[in-house]
# Entry
Amino acid sequence: MSSLPTLNLVGGGRVAQTLATLWHRQPCFSIQDVLTTSLPSAQEACSTIGAGQAVSTWQAMRPADVWMLAVTDAQIAGCARQLAETHALNRTSTAPAPLAFHCSGAHSSELLAPLAAQGWRVASAHCILSFASVSAALQQFPGTPCALEGDAHARDALRPAFNAIGARCFDVASADKLLYHAAAVFATNVLPVLQSTAEDLWRATGMPTALIGHLRESLLRNAVANITSLGPQAALTGPAARGDTAAIARQGAAVTAWDA
# Structure
C-alpha cells in the first residue's frame, strides 16, 4: 500500500490533469478519486493522468489527505460547502487535518471558509502558466512561478509538492490576490486579444491573409525577444517611444472610427 499522501481531485480540466500527472510521475501524491461534471470526463482525466479512480458523486469519494478543487471560480464556494457537508472533519481525530486548496488566481482561500470552520487546512495555489493543452503544459511547467496563499500550515504542506515538480513558489497575501491575478492577465491573455485586433485591422485594410500569418509569427517573435532582452520600456518602438502624442491621438481617432 502506498505511503504517499492521498490526493482527491474535484474538477478534471487542463490544470488538474497537468498537476496531477506531474505529481503522479514524481511521485508526490497517490492520486485517488476524481470527480468532474460527468463520469466519462472523470474517466478521461484519469486516463490522461495515468492514475486515479473516476467517481460520479461526492459521497463516492474516499477521505483523502489533500483535496484539489480545480473548478471554475464560480464553483469554488459551492464545492467547499459540499465537501464540508459530505466529508465533515472529525475533530476528535488525532490525524493531521486534511488540506483543501483551489487553483484560482483571482480568489483567496476565504472561499473555503466552510472547511476552515471545521478545522481543515485551506489554501490557494495558482501557477502562472498558460494551460493551453495538457501536453504543452507538462513540457512548459518546470520553472513556473506558483503563488501560494492561505493559512501557514497549508502553504508549508503544499510548497514541497510544487517544488518537487519544478514550480518556483512564493507567498502572496490574501488581500493582494486580485491585483496579482490582474498582472498575470496582462502578461498572458491581453496579448492574444491585441493580436486578434491587429489582424482584424489588417484584414479591414486589405492585407493578404498570407502576409498576416507571416506578421503574426515575425512581429510577435521579435517583440517577445526584445522585451526579454531589453525590458518592456526599452522594447517600445514607434510614436509611443518617441513621445509623438499627436500621432498617437490621430491613430486613436482612426481606430475609434473603425470600431468604437
Q: What stands out?
A: The mean pLDDT is 94. The CA atoms of residues 28 and 161 lie 6 Å apart. The longest helix spans residues 209-230. The longest strand covers residues 121-127.
